[in-house]
């Protein structure tokens, strides 16, 4: 046997050793927890045979606390490039079978390498978290590693899409990397994110709580809004990531992928001509509107369990990827509040950063009143949504379906925030406030006098409300002043959006020269 053949055999053996991570027993334990290994996750996510691994043979250099005896090839992270649906991506997956996936200086170097390459090549980066946190034996070097990763997350923000999958524990400082990425998908029941764990919480505050209720997927999906998606299985999580990538571009200089459209752009939906109830206080389901106007009724929702009074997600019109922001009348009457404003603002800014047009479907009676909202800075959070719409330079089309009152009218993509096309249904009410509230302010004194005189106050107020509605609570006054470009028949909404997007395809708009805006935070 020649020396070359021997060296090749040695290489093959080392590769096999590296692929075992922490060893067969550790892999069995991982499977017993109902979890896949880092390599299995990558293979599930990317196109078959496309993964090219980097730094497979890298080892840590720590000799504290017996760590020199705990060296594994690759040092707990699998990193490299691959393709998803033929598009280049960079990916890394923490390997829990190696020292609990703890972050070392070496692991951080491997992660930073693929992040740097993703930036250089203009390709998305996908991280799969399954780690016990910093490798304590390495002390400050492990913390420095986190800092290096966070800096790259920040520099990559708005340049390339960053997607995080949480497949196990993610605690302490480790949470900040996924928090800095654009989208997070958490596994139900097997993943959690928090800064301080249940034991520390118990010691410091006396509160007795388990990991699931402190930072599980359901908590972050519905209460905090930290995660954008949840999945019951790891296979489902991979499909979510693949679907998400199909709607977004590889970087901020490209357009989102366009697909062939088999749905006629002039398709009319008679359902829309009947969907708005006669009673202005009666709810309807905005999802039915979205399903009626998008290509083949498809809609990929972002943060479906958080702030349900506003809907955000991706769809296509004539094959073109679009971000949809819509008020939901069937959840808190569609009012804006702290969480809805946060959710909407972040989504609008992502779409703007990555050249994705924004379609807004408006039915909003105002902002939620009360001390709870005021004390939690609804003014500031509402201003975030306002800022996001006003700053966005991508094509913006706004459709007002019914209510659009007061400050919430301004916030939801009005003409003054440089929306390109503003359409209204004939059922829309664009005004400072609703008829009953306006009449109470305008005619309160007169109504009081009539009551004292024994006259029919209800009839008087009803008459004034009808008068106000006819004069102000309609789309025509706004159209008269050019704030609405056209009042359209609801069933033609899809066609007007498709044609509008085609018209706006060559839009070029810039902001005043500055380092960056100071968004109210």
From TrEMBL:
* Span of domain CoA carboxyltransferase C-terminal: 264-515
**Pfam families documented for this protein:** Carboxyl_trans
One GO term (biological process): carbon fixation
- What GO cellular component term, any one, is given? acetyl-CoA carboxylase complex
Q: Tell me which InterPro entries the record gives.
A: AccD/PCCB (IPR051047), AcCoA_carboxyl_beta (IPR034733), ClpP/crotonase-like_dom_sf (IPR029045), COA_CT_C (IPR011763), COA_CT_N (IPR011762)
PROSITE patterns tied to this protein: COA_CT_CTER (PS50989), COA_CT_NTER (PS50980)
Any idea where the CoA carboxyltransferase N-terminal domain is?
4-260
GO molecular function term, any single one: propionyl-CoA carboxylase activity
Family from the record: Belongs to the AccD/PCCB family.
Descriptive protein name? Propionyl-CoA carboxylase beta chain
């Amino acid at each position: 046997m020649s020396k070359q053949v021997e060296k090749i055999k040695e290489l093959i053996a080392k590769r096999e050793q590296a692929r075992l991570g922490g060893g067969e027993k550790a892999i069995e334990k991982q499977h017993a927890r109902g979890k896949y290994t880092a390599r299995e996750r990558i293979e599930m996510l990317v196109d078959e045979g496309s993964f090219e691994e980097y730094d497979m043979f890298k080892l840590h250099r720590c000799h504290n606390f017996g760590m020199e005896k705990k060296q594994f090839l690759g040092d707990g992270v699998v990193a490299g490039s691959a393709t998803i649906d033929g598009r280049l991506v960079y990916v890394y997956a923490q390997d829990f079978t190696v020292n609990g996936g703890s972050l070392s200086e070496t692991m951080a170097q491997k992660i930073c390498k693929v992040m740097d390459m993703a930036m250089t090549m203009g390709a998305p980066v996908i991280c799969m978290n399954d780690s016990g946190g910093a490798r304590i034996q390495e002390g400050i070097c492990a913390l420095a590693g986190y800092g290096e990763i966070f800096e790259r997350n920040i520099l990559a923000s708005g340049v390339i899409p960053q997607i995080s999958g949480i497949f196990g524990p993610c605690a302490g400082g480790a949470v900040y990397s996924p928090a800095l990425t654009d989208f997070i998908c958490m596994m139900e029941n097997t993943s959690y994110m928090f800064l301080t764990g249940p034991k520390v919480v118990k010691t410091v505050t006396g509160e007795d709580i388990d990991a699931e209720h402190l930072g599980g997927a359901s908590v972050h999906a519905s209460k905090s809004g930290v995660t954008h998606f949840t999945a019951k299985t790891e296979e489902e999580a991979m499909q979510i990531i693949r679907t998400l990538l199909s709607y977004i571009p590889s970087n901020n200089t490209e357009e989102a992928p366009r697909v062939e459209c088999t749905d006629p752009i002039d398709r009319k939906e008679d359902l829309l001509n009947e969907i708005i109830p006669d009673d202005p206080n009666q709810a309807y389901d905005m999802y039915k509107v979205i399903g009626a106007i998008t290509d083949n009724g498809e809609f990929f929702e972002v943060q479906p369990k958080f702030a349900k009074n506003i809907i955000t997600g991706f769809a296509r019109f004539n094959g073109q990827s679009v971000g949809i922001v819509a008020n939901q009348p069937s959840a808190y009457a569609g009012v804006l509040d702290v969480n809805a404003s946060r959710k909407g603002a972040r989504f609008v800014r992502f779409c703007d950063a990555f050249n994705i047009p924004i379609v807004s479907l408006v039915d909003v009676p105002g902002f939620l009143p009360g001390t709870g909202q005021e004390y939690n800075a609804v003014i500031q959070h509402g201003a975030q949504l306002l800022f996001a719409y006003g700053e966005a330079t991508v094509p913006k089309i706004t459709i007002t379906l019914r209510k659009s009152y007061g400050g919430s009218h301004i916030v939801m993509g009005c003409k003054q925030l440089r929306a390109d096309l503003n359409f209204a249904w004939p059922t829309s009410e664009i005004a400072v406030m609703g008829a009953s509230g306006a009449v109470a302010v305008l005619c309160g004194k007169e109504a009081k006098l009539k009551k004292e005189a024994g006259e029919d106050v209800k009839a008087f107020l009803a008459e004034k409300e009808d008068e106000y509605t006819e004069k102000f609570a309609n789309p025509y006054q706004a159209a008269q002043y050019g704030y609405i470009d056209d009042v359209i028949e609801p069933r033609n909404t899809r066609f007007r959006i498709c044609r509008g997007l085609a018209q706006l395809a060559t839009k070029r708009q810039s902001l005043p020269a500055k380092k960056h805006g100071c968004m109210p935070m």
